[in-house]
Amino acid sequence: xxxxxxxxxxxxxxxxxxxxxxxxxxxxxxxxxxxxxxxxxxxxxxxxxxxxxxxxxxxxxxxxxxxxxxxxxxxxxxxxxxxxxxxxxxxxxxxxxxxxxxxxxxxxxxxxxxxxxxxxxxxxxxxxxxxxxxxxxxxxxxxxxxxxxxxxxxxxxxxxxxxxxxxxxxxxxxxxxxxxxxxxxxxxxxxxxxxxxxxxxxxxxxxxxxxxxxxxx
Length: 217
Prior knowledge:
Blueprint: H1 3-45, E1 64-65, E2 73-74, E3 107-112, H2 115-123, E4 127-131, H3 136-145, E5 151-155, E6 163-167, E7 170-174, H4 181-189, E8 206-207, E9 212-213
Parallel strand pairs: 3-5, 4-5
Antiparallel strand pairs: 1-2, 2-7, 4-6, 6-7, 8-9
Protein backbone atom coordinates (compact mmCIF):
# COMPACT_ATOMS: atom_id res chain seq x y z
CA UNK A 1 0.00 0.00 0.00
CA UNK A 2 1.38 3.46 -0.93
CA UNK A 3 2.17 5.95 1.83
CA UNK A 4 -0.71 8.29 0.89
CA UNK A 5 -3.13 5.34 0.99
CA UNK A 6 -1.85 4.30 4.41
CA UNK A 7 -2.20 7.85 5.73
CA UNK A 8 -5.75 8.08 4.38
CA UNK A 9 -6.67 4.76 5.95
CA UNK A 10 -5.13 5.85 9.24
CA UNK A 11 -7.15 9.05 9.15
CA UNK A 12 -10.36 7.11 8.55
CA UNK A 13 -9.56 4.77 11.43
CA UNK A 14 -8.86 7.72 13.76
CA UNK A 15 -12.12 9.40 12.76
CA UNK A 16 -14.00 6.16 13.40
CA UNK A 17 -12.40 5.92 16.84
CA UNK A 18 -13.42 9.47 17.73
CA UNK A 19 -16.95 8.85 16.49
CA UNK A 20 -17.12 5.74 18.68
CA UNK A 21 -15.87 7.82 21.60
CA UNK A 22 -18.60 10.37 20.92
CA UNK A 23 -21.27 7.64 20.92
CA UNK A 24 -19.99 6.34 24.26
CA UNK A 25 -20.02 9.89 25.63
CA UNK A 26 -23.62 10.43 24.53
CA UNK A 27 -24.65 7.15 26.15
CA UNK A 28 -23.04 8.21 29.44
CA UNK A 29 -24.84 11.54 29.31
CA UNK A 30 -28.18 9.83 28.74
CA UNK A 31 -27.57 7.49 31.67
CA UNK A 32 -26.62 10.45 33.88
CA UNK A 33 -29.83 12.27 32.94
CA UNK A 34 -31.90 9.19 33.76
CA UNK A 35 -30.15 8.75 37.10
CA UNK A 36 -30.66 12.43 37.91
CA UNK A 37 -34.35 12.19 37.10
CA UNK A 38 -34.78 9.17 39.35
CA UNK A 39 -32.99 10.94 42.18
CA UNK A 40 -35.23 13.99 41.80
CA UNK A 41 -38.37 11.87 41.93
CA UNK A 42 -37.15 10.10 45.06
CA UNK A 43 -36.36 13.41 46.75
CA UNK A 44 -39.77 14.85 45.89
CA UNK A 45 -41.53 11.69 47.02
CA UNK A 46 -39.83 11.89 50.38
CA UNK A 47 -40.82 15.50 50.81
CA UNK A 48 -37.20 16.56 51.07
CA UNK A 49 -36.16 19.90 49.62
CA UNK A 50 -32.74 21.43 49.65
CA UNK A 51 -31.50 24.73 48.28
CA UNK A 52 -27.85 25.74 48.40
CA UNK A 53 -26.65 29.21 47.44
CA UNK A 54 -23.20 30.71 47.27
CA UNK A 55 -21.91 34.24 46.72
CA UNK A 56 -21.52 35.26 43.09
CA UNK A 57 -17.98 35.53 41.81
CA UNK A 58 -16.67 38.70 40.18
CA UNK A 59 -15.75 39.22 36.56
CA UNK A 60 -19.18 38.65 35.02
CA UNK A 61 -18.30 35.09 34.03
CA UNK A 62 -21.17 33.45 35.92
CA UNK A 63 -18.82 31.61 38.25
CA UNK A 64 -19.45 31.21 41.97
CA UNK A 65 -16.94 31.42 44.78
CA UNK A 66 -16.07 28.10 46.40
CA UNK A 67 -15.07 27.37 49.98
CA UNK A 68 -13.12 24.24 48.96
CA UNK A 69 -9.99 26.15 47.90
CA UNK A 70 -9.73 29.86 48.65
CA UNK A 71 -10.19 31.96 45.51
CA UNK A 72 -11.48 29.09 43.37
CA UNK A 73 -14.54 29.55 41.17
CA UNK A 74 -16.96 26.86 40.08
CA UNK A 75 -19.57 26.47 37.34
CA UNK A 76 -22.32 23.90 36.95
CA UNK A 77 -24.60 22.71 34.14
CA UNK A 78 -21.94 23.23 31.49
CA UNK A 79 -22.73 22.02 27.98
CA UNK A 80 -21.05 18.84 26.78
CA UNK A 81 -22.14 18.60 23.16
CA UNK A 82 -19.67 18.08 20.32
CA UNK A 83 -19.95 21.00 17.91
CA UNK A 84 -18.31 22.31 14.75
CA UNK A 85 -16.55 25.65 14.52
CA UNK A 86 -15.27 27.69 17.45
CA UNK A 87 -17.74 27.79 20.35
CA UNK A 88 -17.72 30.71 22.78
CA UNK A 89 -17.27 30.35 26.54
CA UNK A 90 -18.34 32.60 29.44
CA UNK A 91 -15.04 32.24 31.31
CA UNK A 92 -11.36 32.69 30.38
CA UNK A 93 -9.75 30.21 30.03
CA UNK A 94 -12.82 28.02 29.50
CA UNK A 95 -13.66 25.54 32.26
CA UNK A 96 -16.21 23.54 30.28
CA UNK A 97 -18.93 23.82 27.69
CA UNK A 98 -19.67 22.53 24.20
CA UNK A 99 -16.48 21.59 22.37
CA UNK A 100 -14.90 19.83 19.42
CA UNK A 101 -15.17 16.05 19.14
CA UNK A 102 -11.35 15.83 19.29
CA UNK A 103 -9.44 16.45 22.51
CA UNK A 104 -6.02 18.07 22.90
CA UNK A 105 -3.24 15.60 23.62
CA UNK A 106 -2.14 16.11 27.21
CA UNK A 107 1.39 17.44 27.67
CA UNK A 108 3.39 20.66 28.02
CA UNK A 109 3.28 23.19 25.19
CA UNK A 110 4.95 26.58 24.70
CA UNK A 111 2.01 27.99 22.77
CA UNK A 112 -1.73 28.60 23.04
CA UNK A 113 -4.05 25.63 22.52
CA UNK A 114 -7.43 26.18 20.82
CA UNK A 115 -10.15 26.25 23.47
CA UNK A 116 -12.38 23.78 21.66
CA UNK A 117 -9.80 20.99 22.01
CA UNK A 118 -8.56 21.81 25.51
CA UNK A 119 -12.09 21.79 26.93
CA UNK A 120 -12.58 18.24 25.66
CA UNK A 121 -9.45 17.23 27.60
CA UNK A 122 -11.00 18.73 30.73
CA UNK A 123 -14.06 16.57 30.14
CA UNK A 124 -11.73 13.56 30.31
CA UNK A 125 -10.35 14.62 33.69
CA UNK A 126 -7.34 16.74 32.76
CA UNK A 127 -6.09 19.72 34.75
CA UNK A 128 -5.02 22.57 32.47
CA UNK A 129 -2.30 24.99 33.60
CA UNK A 130 -2.16 28.19 31.55
CA UNK A 131 0.31 31.05 31.85
CA UNK A 132 0.56 34.65 30.71
CA UNK A 133 3.84 36.50 31.25
CA UNK A 134 4.83 34.21 34.13
CA UNK A 135 8.50 34.27 35.15
CA UNK A 136 10.91 31.69 33.75
CA UNK A 137 11.35 30.30 37.26
CA UNK A 138 7.60 29.83 37.67
CA UNK A 139 7.37 28.22 34.22
CA UNK A 140 10.04 25.68 35.19
CA UNK A 141 8.23 24.79 38.42
CA UNK A 142 4.92 24.40 36.64
CA UNK A 143 6.40 22.20 33.91
CA UNK A 144 7.54 19.75 36.59
CA UNK A 145 4.01 19.59 37.98
CA UNK A 146 2.59 19.17 34.48
CA UNK A 147 4.80 16.19 33.68
CA UNK A 148 2.26 13.64 34.92
CA UNK A 149 -0.61 11.93 33.14
CA UNK A 150 -3.76 13.97 32.41
CA UNK A 151 -1.96 17.31 32.74
CA UNK A 152 -2.11 19.98 30.07
CA UNK A 153 0.03 23.13 30.11
CA UNK A 154 0.10 26.00 27.63
CA UNK A 155 0.29 29.73 27.21
CA UNK A 156 -2.92 31.77 27.31
CA UNK A 157 -2.37 35.47 26.50
CA UNK A 158 -4.91 37.83 28.06
CA UNK A 159 -6.21 35.41 30.68
CA UNK A 160 -6.09 38.05 33.41
CA UNK A 161 -3.61 36.29 35.69
CA UNK A 162 -0.04 35.03 35.39
CA UNK A 163 -1.10 31.47 36.23
CA UNK A 164 -4.50 29.79 35.97
CA UNK A 165 -5.42 26.21 36.84
CA UNK A 166 -8.56 24.83 35.26
CA UNK A 167 -10.48 21.57 35.60
CA UNK A 168 -14.00 20.82 34.39
CA UNK A 169 -16.22 23.38 36.15
CA UNK A 170 -13.41 24.59 38.43
CA UNK A 171 -10.80 27.34 38.12
CA UNK A 172 -8.13 28.94 40.29
CA UNK A 173 -6.03 32.02 39.48
CA UNK A 174 -2.71 32.55 41.29
CA UNK A 175 0.23 34.95 41.05
CA UNK A 176 3.18 32.58 41.36
CA UNK A 177 4.12 28.90 41.15
CA UNK A 178 4.96 28.70 44.86
CA UNK A 179 1.31 29.14 45.88
CA UNK A 180 0.35 26.03 47.93
CA UNK A 181 -3.15 26.08 46.44
CA UNK A 182 -1.72 24.83 43.14
CA UNK A 183 -0.92 21.39 44.53
CA UNK A 184 -4.24 21.28 46.38
CA UNK A 185 -6.09 21.99 43.15
CA UNK A 186 -4.23 19.31 41.18
CA UNK A 187 -4.64 16.73 43.95
CA UNK A 188 -8.37 17.44 44.16
CA UNK A 189 -9.32 17.71 40.49
CA UNK A 190 -6.90 15.63 38.39
CA UNK A 191 -9.31 12.82 37.43
CA UNK A 192 -11.41 14.20 40.29
CA UNK A 193 -15.10 13.66 41.08
CA UNK A 194 -16.10 16.55 38.80
CA UNK A 195 -14.84 14.64 35.73
CA UNK A 196 -17.70 13.82 33.32
CA UNK A 197 -15.74 11.05 31.57
CA UNK A 198 -13.01 9.78 33.93
CA UNK A 199 -10.29 7.69 32.34
CA UNK A 200 -11.15 8.64 28.75
CA UNK A 201 -8.18 9.20 26.44
CA UNK A 202 -5.95 12.27 26.63
CA UNK A 203 -3.70 11.36 23.69
CA UNK A 204 -4.00 10.32 20.07
CA UNK A 205 -6.23 13.19 18.88
CA UNK A 206 -5.31 16.89 18.38
CA UNK A 207 -1.57 17.65 18.49
CA UNK A 208 -0.98 21.28 19.58
CA UNK A 209 2.59 21.15 18.21
CA UNK A 210 1.52 20.43 14.65
CA UNK A 211 -2.00 21.85 14.83
CA UNK A 212 -3.35 18.66 13.28
CA UNK A 213 -5.51 15.71 14.25
CA UNK A 214 -4.06 12.22 14.36
CA UNK A 215 -3.88 10.77 10.86
CA UNK A 216 -3.84 14.14 9.11
CA UNK A 217 -0.95 15.06 6.80
